[in-house]
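Issue: ligand-bound run for FE2/S2 (inorganic) cluster - logging full I/O for the record.

Environment: standard queue, default settings, no custom constraints.

Inputs:
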Amino acid sequence: MQHMCKIIDNRKLCSDIFEMRIECPEIVREAIPGQFLHIRVKKAVEPLLRRPISISRIHRDTGSISLIYQCIGKGTIEMAALKQGEYIDVMGPLGNGFSLFNEERCAVIGGGIGIAPLLELACSLKNCDAYLGFRHDTFMVDEFASVCKETCIATEDGSVGSKGYVTDMIKDITKYDVIYACGPKAMLKRVKELCGESHVKCFISVEERMGCGIGACLVCACKIKEGDTWHYKKVCTDGPVFAAEEVDFDD
Ligand SMILES: Cc1cc2nc3c(=O)[nH]c(=O)nc-3n(C[C@H](O)[C@H](O)[C@H](O)COP(=O)(O)OP(=O)(O)OC[C@H]3O[C@@H](n4cnc5c(N)ncnc54)[C@H](O)[C@@H]3O)c2cc1C
Ligand code: FES
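Outputs:
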């Protein structure tokens, strides 16, 4: 599961968003949309822990994978400094990934960097609609537009597309049978409400801090409802994709 992968490209898309493409034929053979890679950015003591980053595109023709990441702290800043030709230590593919409902009417809903895992999903679904929300800078819109039936954009400042939140753009969620979403907790909570009210099937990809990434340390526990009770599941191995109805956001 652990691979040293050559960096084919690592470039800035906008402000603090980067795309890294790595050569990893073994991972490509196994990977499905919604899974993630656990990356040891450097051999040095710091940063010690691996960083979980979603698989954004699986390029089966070239045996490579694209990762879209936001520079927010030590690990991702180090990642952005890596150059073409260098190697990174990658574990994966990890996690359960999305179940595909190709025959049904589907939409993907993403907020900010949460759109990253939805691109490969949109490519696999074919003919889904995409609702993408950003604060101000947009990225990967053309890639979604090239594979989706309709792509709707919202920005919080109104600089591109509709002004407001991505969920405000969805006027009639009942035109879909299945919704897939990834993004900030508040967005996922709203998507869950919208789908719950209209009995639309909904799958969400959630984020938790991670240690091992393989189910051994319990750092990534997430509260799951089952009937009137609840228990914890591990985001790294039971997720990161869950049915929205089972995730308890009120924790
Ligand atoms: C399943 C999964 C998929 C993800 N996919 C992507 C992706 O495609 N692109 C992307 O930009 N980000 C993604 N993230 C978030 C990404 O893992 C964090 O932004 C990253 O670990 C931050 O590391 P850092 O060292 O730069 O930040 P720091 O804040 O310095 O990190 C300190 C510690 O907190 C953890 N951490 C910080 N923020 C998060 C977070 N949001 N989620 C989980 N752990 C966090 C770090 O892993 C590290 O252990 C994903 C997270 C998960 C759980
Ligand atoms: S990160 Fe260790 S159990 Fe999930």
